[in-house]
């Protein structure tokens, strides 16, 4: 009985911390596109994370067991980390898993949560629109440079900033649309649990 009460209490705490997840998700073709893109970006971010982990293990093993150190592992680790963040940022925004301070979210009703989501999403969209052209210019600079040890054209590395802000722009628009629809409808999402793939 006490385990059941502890589980219920834990679920209540988790639900209170995930207030924005109660805003209904976008359906239809656009919602399906967002969900498919979620899965693709998340899969690529996981691949980058696994690659990063293996590269760090190789770096440690080479320092311990080989007479030489592999200099390219540090560079590859940095690039994989950059791409992991760039690929995952939009998914994190869409699933409302970003770090935030929740001082008043629990007090908001369905319309308040929807309005808050619209406001935050529009700020994100505005910031992404402001930064995206400069990120593109920054990526173009990399066309004339190569990385020091791997000799990768830096445009591929600098392009991660375009990917990051493009994903934030797309998912910010999706979240704003979800919030607007919830604001108009005013109905809270059903108690179905959201899948985390």
Structure characterization notes:
The structure is a single chain. This protein is 72% helix and 0% strand. The chain has 5 helices and no strands. The two termini are 31 Å apart. It is a multi-pass membrane protein. Residues 53-173 form the Tripartite ATP-independent periplasmic transporters DctQ component domain. Its main location: membrane.
Compile the SSE list and pairings.
Blueprint: H1 2-17, H2 28-65, H3 72-94, H4 110-141, H5 154-185
Helix pairs in contact: 2-3, 3-5, 4-5
Count, helices:
5
How would you spell out the order of helices and strands? HHHHH
Q: How many domains, as an integer?
A: 1
* Class based on secondary structure composition and strand pairing: mainly alpha
Number of strands: 0
Transmembrane segments: 40-61, 76-93, 114-136, 156-184
Protein name: TRAP transporter small permease protein
Domain Tripartite ATP-independent periplasmic transporters DctQ component: 53-173
Family: Belongs to the TRAP transporter small permease family.
């Amino acid at each position: 009985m006490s385990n059941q009460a502890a589980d219920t209490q834990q679920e209540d705490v988790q639900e209170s911390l995930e207030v924005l997840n109660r805003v209904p998700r976008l359906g239809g073709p656009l919602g399906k596109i967002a969900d498919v893109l979620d899965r693709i970006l998340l899969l690529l971010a996981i691949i980058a994370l696994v690659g990063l982990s293996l590269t760090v293990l190789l770096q440690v093993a080479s320092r311990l067991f080989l007479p030489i150190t592999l200099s390219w592992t540090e560079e590859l680790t940095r690039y994989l980390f950059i791409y992991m963040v760039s690929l995952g940022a939009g998914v994190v925004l869409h699933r409302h898993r970003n770090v935030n301070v929740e001082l008043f979210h629990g007090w908001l009703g369905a319309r308040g949560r929807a309005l808050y989501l619209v406001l935050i999403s529009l700020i994100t969209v505005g910031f992404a629109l402001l930064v995206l052209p400069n990120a593109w210019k920054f990526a173009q600079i990399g066309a004339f440079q190569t990385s020091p040890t791997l000799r990768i054209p830096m445009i591929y590395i600098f392009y991660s900033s375009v990917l990051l802000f493009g994903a934030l722009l797309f998912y910010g628009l999706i979240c704003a649309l979800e919030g607007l629809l919830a604001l108009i409808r005013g109905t809270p999402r059903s108690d179905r649990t959201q899948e985390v793939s």
